[in-house]
Amino acid sequence: xxxxxxxxxxxxxxxxxxxxxxxxxxxxxxxxxxxxxxxxxxxxxxxxxxxxxxxxxxxxxxxxxxxxxxxxxxxxxxxxxxxxxxxxxxxxxxxxxxxxxxxxxxxxxxxxxxxxxxxxxxxxxxxxxxxxxxxxxxxxxxxxxxxxxxxxxxxxxxxxxxx
Length: 163
Known about the structure:
By secondary structure, the chain is of the alpha+beta class. 21% of the residues lie in helices and 36% in strands. It has 4 helices and 9 strands; from the N terminus they run αβββββαβββααβ. An 8-stranded antiparallel β-barrel has the order 1-2-3-4-5-6-8-9. A hairpin with a 4-residue loop joins β1 (26-30) and β2 (35-40).
């Protein structure tokens, strides 16, 4: 009986901490377990971006950089995933050459409704949709270089929360 109470308490604590995960610490995975997307704090109120994240190709350890910029009229969570972009003063051509995916980051609810990405300090979404992410990665230089060999599904489910 005592063991059952301890287990029930641990499960309740885990469920509560999962619900309390902030968007800037949420970790997601694709359905096949080949990719992991991890949000991290932006670190500045003056930043033009609303979110930062990393996408890790688990088979090769390759890490891609991602940002989200808010868009208006209509409101959108505009995402960009890049690989090996030059630092500093760069041209639009240089950014385009290192961009792996560009599109809207949607959250999905249990009934199939879509919404914008929550603010960094809000409760993390359970499911993300990066429409066209898999095909974009498949036709990127990452594929040609052998750093990615399986195209991810465009839907990612939250699997954890960074400390």
